[in-house]
Amino acid sequence: MTTDAAPRPDVAAPAVADTTSRRLAINRLLARTKLDASAVDRFLARRTAPIVEGTRCTFLWRGEAEEVVLHHSIFRFHGPVPLRRVDGTDLWYVIIDLPEGSRVEYQLEITRGGQHERFNDPLNPHLAHNPFGSTSVCFGHGYETPEWTQPAPGKRNGTLEQIVVPSRAWQRDCAVTVYRPAGFRRAARYPLLIVHDGGDYLKFSAAQTVLDNLIGRGDMAAVIAAFVSPGDRLAEYSDSPEHARFLAAELVPRLEAAYPLAGPSARCLMGASLGGVAALSAACRYPGRYGSLLLQSGSFVFTENGGRPEIEPVVRFVSAFRAAPRRVANRVFVSCGTYEPLIIPNRAMVPVFEAAGMAVRYTEARDGHSWENWRDRLREGFSWIFPGQHE
Q: Would residue 390 count as lying in a domain?
């Protein structure tokens, strides 16, 4: 196993910082003898919130309210964090100590006239998008958005093609988006990547841009990628035999008939969260059909359902796999954020995969359960599963 893990959250965890250091911008403001609206105006005009100074991050809000709290995405950090009001002003603040390299999504909530309102930080231009909307983002000291996640001017891009796969397993036609790399040749034989929640990976994790960049610079081999999207996600991704049959008996043969693909050992199933469960489950039901798995923040719950009977199939599946691990692929790449509740079951699955005889690479990051966290781990996963000329 190769582990490139940040320090565990119980060693280097976020905390509310109680500091009077005059080095912090907010404390220099508080130390002024006269504070009025114009002083706050000047303070905010020179800065973007949150104010990041080393590991200290100052979250701000300005306005009239009875209470202001910070909602964050950090597991095992206490709940909503109250902001303090600067005396004599309408400026509110709280200082959080974030370890190096952290990336945290958050929102603010105010109470005014007994009514609660939750929203993105109006002082922060940075947003992260997801299927449910958007959140504000705090980039801790040392975090950098990987340059290979951004469009590269002048680089040849792959293409996306929409196909329809008639499915007897699901009794419907299933839309699939197929990625073909730049320089695609019929005479070649390409590895196959099958991506669960494919539409979301394309929209929120810049999957096409990532593939274009990593293939173009030789960090990974050129691949054909099939981006699939579920109908009823909870039902289809919770150890569904129909889903596994759709992939192995309907989707793969359809792709093999249309594209020049390499054999089963060059196939990879990929998914995040519940999609990670779907990928592992499909490989278990059709062992030998896939050479690799790429699992991001998999929902590998195995002890209790927390009062949610709808995830009981997941609990049964994961518990059974842990009790009797099987080699269902050659290699497994696993990633997870230390700020998400799934960090514990993901860590626990690594020795289970190893016990099954599969090669495992595992990595962590100081991030949460988010599409940009999963995006940022793709280079390591893709380059290990599909080695390029530079690997």
A: no
pLDDT digits (tens, 9 = 90+) for 58-77: 999 999 999 999 999 898 77
How does residue 280 score in pLDDT terms, banded at 50, 70 and 90?
Answer: very high
Q: Nearest-CA neighbor of 290 among 208, 164, 385?
A: 385
pTM (whole model) above 0.85: yes
Examine the domain organization and report whether 187 and 256 are in the same domain.
Answer: yes
Residue 163 pairs in a beta bridge with: 176
Examine the domain organization and report whether 114 and 173 are in the same domain: no
List the domain range (segments joined by +) for residue 100. 2-139
Write the CATH number for 331: 3.40.50.1820
126-184 confidence digits (pLDDT tens): 999 999 999 999 999 999 999 999 998 888 899 999 999 999 999 999 999 999 999 99
Asked if residue 356 lies in contact with residue 332, where contact means CB atoms within 8 angstroms, the answer is no
Assigned domain for 391 exists: no
- Domain boundary pick from 139, 171, 190: 139
CA 302/CA 325 separation, integer angstroms: 14
Same domain, 87 and 192: no
Tell me how far apart the alpha carbons of residues 250 and 282 are, in angstroms, rounded to a whole number.
Answer: 13
Residue 175, both tokens: 């839309």
Burial class (CB in 10 A: 0-12, 13-18, 19+), 374: buried
Same-domain status, 151 and 111: no
Same domain, yes or no: 131 and 161: no
What is the domain count for the chain? 2
Of 87, 111, 139, which residue constitutes the final position of a domain? 139
Q: Is residue 182 left, alpha or beta, with left meaning phi > 0 and alpha meaning psi from -120 to 50?
A: beta
330 assigned to some structural domain: yes
Assigned token pair, 45: 């005009």
User: Domain with 56 in it: what CATH number?
Assistant: 2.60.40.10
Cα–Cα dist 309/314, whole Å: 10
